[in-house]
Specification:
The structure holds two protein chains of two kinds. Helix content of chain A is 79%, strand content 0%. Chain A has 13 helices and no strands. Chain A is extended. Chain B is of the alpha/beta class. Chain B is built from ten helices and ten strands. A six-stranded mixed sheet of chain B has the order 6-7-8-3-9-10, with helices on both faces. In chain B, strands 2-1-4-5 form a four-stranded antiparallel sheet, covered by helices on one side. In chain B, α4 packs parallel to α6. Classes of the chains: A mainly alpha, B alpha/beta. Bound molecules: adenosine-5'-diphosphate and magnesium ion (MG).
Chain lengths: 324, 253
């Protein structure tokens, strides 16, 4: 998106909008009744016991909360620097979430005792299962994309049946089908390979469309230029078309990888010791379910953030190349 | 005069009763044409008359439906095995250059010799530099196509084709996508090439080039060859009314 050089008035400077915002927030708070919450407790000296403050207490706490929130939004709107604004909002949301988790009264002792194992075993397994799967999925996707664009009826039929089937079934079901189905026809398959096969096949089906779009977006002049030189199909694909579609394929493939990282939690159902499996089993014995789930959630989130960072680096690199 | 300008060693391309359809649309009708070795032919005609389609049939970027197209002794048809060999011997220059944007100028030029003719890298490099010098841009060898002007890009495209040592060169409106001040540098390169004895088929509206370089001018309209003559006769004494009308339109400016 290209930013216009003329900016509109900042909406938070319009009294009408602020009034509207306040009213909306107040109504929301009023419905959810904050008189029993932290705000209610903070206002206890003025209102008395939050349990008994009733309608009056509900009004006061709701309006107090709304005032605080609107003031905060106003303050943010006055921050002059874009980066600073982003950081402030991020921190506030983060604190909000953390205090939400904190209110669960978690045993940090328990988390501390398990986290190392979760990182070394869980993250490691999650990452390598996902990484192998995305590589295999990419190969499947190239073949699928070429088959879907070919004039060969057989190839097209196989490819479209494949994408239809694997996009049409829930991934969880595919995992079960492969893990439990293969032994039926005589192949006993380990959990990890079964998980990798399921993830590769499923994501290969989605990525077929990504690769197809990337290949189709290359100007047909590139095909004609290469053919006129006497290049054969495979050579054109490898040396001319794919290298040019990669900058278009990478962003959506990065997204797929991030999605896969979390979908790989589904292979925990067949006993692969990835992050989600550990979160469930480690918490089970001592009933520290919440601790382990939240820890796993945070770990997933952190992995995703790292990947997003890597992805944006790669994208920037290709953008630089393109604008050469 | 034009009969003696090229040596008549027999045809390198011969087209007989060729017809081409796009679905129901009859794009080319009963084309008969022979191009001798060393001949320079200019094809002109109004937009949509089938000029591009005709020369694209010569390296089978398009398929014809009936009649025959014979290039360098090889009959072009759907199930032929050696189309890549034919294509590697027929150079083609496009209106929009079709250079490979992810490769440097040098890589664009070495790709064909290395990948198709299996020329060793050093030799391919030498060939590429020789032809880049020939089109007067050896100093741009390490740049990417997007860093060059349109005229320079088209000259790279010509060099890229020449690196395959083609027996015949096809040009499809090579100057139509260029800014006016760059047209002459490309035409000069092509004139130079013509003087070296290259067999050329050029689709163009540059009538000055046709007068100066061509042995024969072919006029097309609505998918048919309407008139074919040596340049002087073609421009001074056009036979058909359609040719006259077309010439009056392109020659006024
Ligand atoms: N791929 C195609 N599919 C359908 N019709 C086409 C195609 N290419 C060209 N045509 C039609 O064939 C006719 C000749 O086109 P073309 O050879 O490009 O003309 P010219 O190069 O003389 O301007 C035009 O009417 C054009 O619309
Ligand atoms: Mg044309």
């Amino acid at each position: 998106m290209i930013q216009d050089t003329v900016t509109e008035d900042i909406i938070m400077r319009k009294p009408k909008f602020i009034a509207f915002l306040f009213t909306t927030i107040f109504i929301c708070f009023f419905i959810f009744d904050p008189s029993q919450s932290i705000v209610g407790h903070l206002l206890e000296p003025a209102l008395g016991d939050p349990e008994k403050s009733g309608f009056y207490g509900r009004c006061v706490t709701a309006s107090m909360s709304a005032v605080l929130l609107v003031l905060n939004l106003l303050a943010i709107s006055w921050i002059p620097n874009f980066r600073l604004q982003v950081i402030t909002v991020w921190l506030q949301l983060l604190i909000l979430f953390l205090s939400f988790f904190y209110s669960f009264d978690l045993s940090f002792e328990f988390i501390r005792s398990k986290i190392w194992f979760m990182v070394t075993q869980g993250i490691f397994t999650t990452l390598y299962v996902s990484a192998i799967s995305i590589v295999i999925a990419s190969f499947i996707a190239i073949i699928g994309a070429v088959a879907k664009m070919s004039s060969n009826g057989f190839a097209y039929a196989i490819a479209s049946f494949y994408t239809s089937f694997f996009r049409g079934l829930p991934l969880l079901m595919q995992v079960y089908l492969i893990y439990l189905g293969f032994p039926q026809i005589g192949y006993v398959i380990d959990a990890v390979p079964a998980g990798i096969i399921a993830l590769s096949l499923c994501y290969g089906a989605y990525m077929t469309e990504i690769f197809r779009a990337g290949i189709m977006s290359i100007d047909h002049g590139q095909w004609e230029g290469s053919r006129a030189l006497g290049f054969k199909f495979g050579l054109i694909m490898r040396k001319i078309i794919l290298p040019q579609s990669i900058p278009l394929i990478i962003p959506p493939t990065g997204n797929q990888f991030i999605a896969m990282l979390k979908d790989s939690s589904l292979v925990s159902v067949i006993g692969v010791w990835e992050l989600m499996f550990l979160a469930r089993t480690l918490g089970n014995k001592t009933f520290n379910h919440m601790e382990m789930l939240i820890t796993a959630a945070m770990l997933y989130w952190m992995m995703t953030m790292v990947l997003e960072l890597i992805q944006s680096r790669i994208e920037r690199k290709y953008k630089k190349q393109q604008s050469r | 005069m034009s009969e003696t300008k090229h040596n008549t060693k027999g045809p390198i391309i011969s087209i007989r009763q060729m017809n081409k359809y796009y679905g129901d649309f009859h794009a080319l009708t009963d084309i008969n044409l022979e191009i001798s070795i060393g001949e320079r032919m200019v094809i002109c005609g109004p937009s949509g008359s089938g000029k591009s389609t005709l020369i694209r049939c010569l390296n089978r970027l398009e398929a014809h439906q009936s009649g025959s197209v014979n290039v360098n002794g090889v009959e072009l048809h759907q199930r032929m095995k050696d189309i890549d060999k034919v294509r590697s011997e027929v150079g083609m220059v496009f209106q929009h250059f079709n250079l490979f944007p992810h490769m440097t100028v040098l890589e664009n030029c070495t790709a064909g010799p290395m990948w198709v003719n299996k020329v060793p890298p050093e030799d391919a490099h030498n060939i590429a530099m020789k032809y880049l010098e020939r089109v007067n841009i050896p100093e741009q060898a390490d740049k990417y196509p997007a860093q060059l002007s349109g005229g320079q890009q088209q000259r790279v495209a010509i060099a890229r084709s020449l690196c395959m040592h083609p027996k015949v060169m096809l040009f499809d409106e090579p100057t139509s996508a260029l800014d006016p001040e760059m047209v002459s540098e490309v035409l000069d390169t092509m004139t130079d090439l013509a003087q070296s004895g290259m067999t050329m088929i050029v689709v163009t509206h540059e009538m000055g080039f046709a007068k100066k370089v061509a042995d024969r001018v072919v006029f097309m309209d609505e998918g048919r060859i309407v008139e074919s003559n040596e340049p002087i006769a073609f421009f001074e004494n056009p036979q058909s009314d359609r040719t006259k009308k077309f010439l009056s339109q392109v020659l006024v400016h």
